[in-house]
Every structure is written in C-alpha cells, then in structure tokens.
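INFO batch 0412 | record 1 of 1 | parsing
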Amino acid sequence: MRNSDKVTAVGYTTGMTGKRGDMGTKIRFTLGETNTLRVKELAKLGATDIWFVSTPNPMTKAEALRYLQGIDDPRLRLPEVQRAIAHSAKRILPKK
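INFO prediction complete | emitting tokens
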C-alpha cells in the first residue's frame, strides 16, 4: 500500500510485526476495521494484540496517522504504541 492510497481504518498490532519475524508494535492501515481477512492475516503472522479504529472518511496514511494521534484512548497511551506512532510519523508525515 502506497502512502497516497486512501485507508478507512488505522490501528496497531503487537507481536510479530512482519515476515522477518520482528517483535514489537507496529501501526497498521487497512481498508476496513472489520476486514476479517486482514485480522486473520495479521494473527497468522503472529500478532497478539490487534486494534483498529475506523476513520470518519477515507484518508491518506498521513491523515489517518494524525487522526490516530488525536484519539483519546488508554491503549494509545501505552509506551510501545507511542513509540510505534512516533516511528510511523517519522516515516510517513511530511518533513517540516
């Protein structure tokens, strides 16, 4: 998925975060919060904690990440999730 593609849900996964077997928390973007195939795929990769929230309208990854940063949810205040958000922001958000 390119950064310019529109997404309808953003969230995070914890556990195995990729095909290389990296452990940790990663921000994820998808085309639907209830996309059961995506959740099953992530669980199959080893994700143990999968959480998505729908965006109010289709957004780019940068817009969805800003939307996620504005949500007040205790899960998003966890240190490992904050690190994942910061890592994604560094990679996705435009440089100032």
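INFO post-check: DSSP finds three helices and three strands in the chain.
INFO record closed
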